[in-house]
C-alpha cells in the first residue's frame, strides 16, 4: 500500500503546477457541491505523501494570497519582483470579500486534517537554514 502511495505521489508531483492551477481556480467557487468535492480531493491528495501535501498547502495559500494582496503598481509592467524591487515594500492589501471568506473556510476545513495541518505549519514557520530541498 505504501509503495502505491509513493508511486502516485511521484506521478502527481510532475503535475503539481497543473494541480495547483486547478486548486487556485476552484478555491473561490460559490458552488457548494464543487466546494465539497475540492475539499475531499485536497484531503485525499494531502494523504498520499508529504511532498504532495506540501504543494496542496502552497496552492491553497496562493489562492488565499491572491484574494488578499494587490500587486505593486510597478509590478504590472514588470512581473519579475526581483527587478521591480517589490520585496522592500510592504504589500498592499485588498478589502476581504466573500471569495476570501470561502477560501478561509476551505483552509479551516483542511486544517482539521493532520495531513494538511503539518505541512501548513511547516510553510507558515518559514524557511530555515537546515531545511532539506
Morphology call: globular
Q: End-to-end span in angstroms?
A: 25 Å
**Largest beta-sheet details:** 2 strands, antiparallel
Q: Assess the beta-strand content as a share of residues.
A: under 5%
Decide which structural class fits the backbone. mainly alpha
**Uncertain stretches:** none
Order of helices and strands: HHHHEHEHH
Strand order of the largest sheet: 1-2
Number of DSSP helical runs: 7
Assembly state: single chain
Percentage of residues assigned to helices? 55-70%
Rg measurement, Å: 16 Å
The total number of structural domains is: 1
What do the pLDDT scores average to? 84
How many beta-strand elements?
A: 2
Report what the structure shows.
With 133 residues, the chain is mostly helical. The chain has one domain (4-72, 97-123). 67% of the residues lie in helices and 3% in strands. It has 7 helices and 2 strands; from the N terminus they run ααααβαβαα. It has helices at residues 2-13, 16-26, 32-48, 50-68, 81-84, 98-111, 114-125; strands at residues 69-70, 92-93. The chain has a two-stranded antiparallel sheet. Helix 2 crosses helix 4, helix 4 packs antiparallel against helix 6 and helix 4 packs across helix 7. GO terms for molecular function: RNA binding. InterPro entries: Virilizer. One of its GO terms (cellular component) is RNA N6-methyladenosine methyltransferase complex.
Amino acid at each position: 500500500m505504501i509503495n502505491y502511495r509513493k508511486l502516485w505521489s511521484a506521478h502527481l508531483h510532475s503535475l503539481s503546477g497543473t494541480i495547483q492551477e486547478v486548486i487556485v481556480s476552484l478555491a473561490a467557487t460559490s458552488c457548494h457541491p464543487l466546494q465539497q468535492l475540492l475539499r475531499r480531493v485536497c484531503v485525499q491528495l494531502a494523504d498520499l505523501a508529504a511532498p504532495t501535501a506540501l504543494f496542496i498547502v502552497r496552492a491553497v495559500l496562493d489562492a488565499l494570497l491572491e484574494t488578499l494582496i494587490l500587486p505593486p503598481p510597478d509590478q504590472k509592467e514588470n512581473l519579475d519582483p526581483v527587478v521591480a524591487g517589490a520585496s522592500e515594500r510592504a504589500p498592499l492589501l485588498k478589502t476581504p470579500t466573500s471569495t476570501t471568506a470561502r477560501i478561509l473556510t476551505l483552509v479551516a476545513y483542511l486544517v482539521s486534517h493532520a495531513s494538511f495541518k503539518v505541512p501548513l505549519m511547516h510553510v507558515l514557520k518559514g524557511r530555515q537554514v537546515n531545511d532539506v530541498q
